[in-house]
User: What shape does this take?
Amino acid sequence: MESVIPVKEMIHHARIAESAGDQLTAVQHYEKIIRSDPLNEFAYDRLMILYRKNKDLKKELGTINSAIRVYEKFYKSRASKSKKINDISARLSKAVGLVDKQGMNLYDPEPIAGWKKRKSILEKKKK
Assistant: This one.
């Protein structure tokens, strides 16, 4: 049976591998971190950086898309089940200018906004 290693310790091992120049091992550690803690923003960011350094744009784009998908699902799951709370929240968001007239968000929460910007830059590079 495999023992469970705390995420903090896995990050430490990944950082050591990265600083030693062993990017393959660092990537493996960061991927393992994401499997055990899918909302670990740090691991996604480091993976994106490592793929960029290795000029592996396809894997970087895949990591960005995966991270955005996971976080969007997380934010949707946090929405209240109460109709009254959702109604008050929607009116407040509209009043402070966070949504348009149709109720669509004008701004993405972090880290999604940063990753979408990174994705658009990467897609321009690919062309």
Remarks:
- Residues 57-77 form the longest helix (21 residues).
- The CA atoms of residues 54 and 112 lie 23 Å apart.
- The chain has a mean pLDDT of 92.
